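User: Teach me something about this protein's shape.
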Amino acid sequence: MLDGYLFATTAVTLWVIVDPPGLLPVFLGLTRGMGKAEQRAAATKASLVAFGVIAVFAFCGKWVLEYLHVSVAALQVAGGLLLLLVALELLMGWSRSQDQAEHGINVAVVPLGTPLMAGPGAIVAAMVAVNDATCVSDYLAVGLALVAVMAVVWLFLWFAGAIKRVLRDSGVTLASRIAGLLLAAIAVQMVADGVFAFAAA
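Assistant: First, the predicted structure itself:
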């Protein structure tokens, strides 16, 4: 029988960490040059990437990190530094040219899919939930919780275009600057947490 408590606690924990409402201004800022179809494609790709990364680390993360000799603290610092670069881009209003957008790193994969959505916090939370599982139904509960949260995230991002129409260009620009500031704070906190974890080790 499916463990409802494990499902609920895992879903709530992932929801709080991923924070779908908080992703909206960042998503709008990073996709402001895209059309409606491109934006929705980015929403789908980012959600799938985040789901895949979290799922892989949830069920195989312990062995992957041990094999690569990488600690969670190192993952936090790396993710924080990457997010800091994205935050600077949003704060300064830097944008990629069309050629760079086509041949560079897709924002749906990096930084939206990871490390923003599938960051160290979500990865560790999923790994802990899997470690707490004792039978097949428990693993199923964790998997369903991840699917449910990622589905809600996808819905939030999918309808970001409607929010964009309400905010207009000036509102999206303002949201981008605010998101950049908040993202910079999140990035610094991630780096600090990683440094403190290194110091405590």
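Now, about its shape. The CA atoms of residues 2 and 137 lie 5 Å apart. The longest helix spans residues 160-200. If you'd like, I can walk through any region in more detail.
User: That's plenty for now, thanks!
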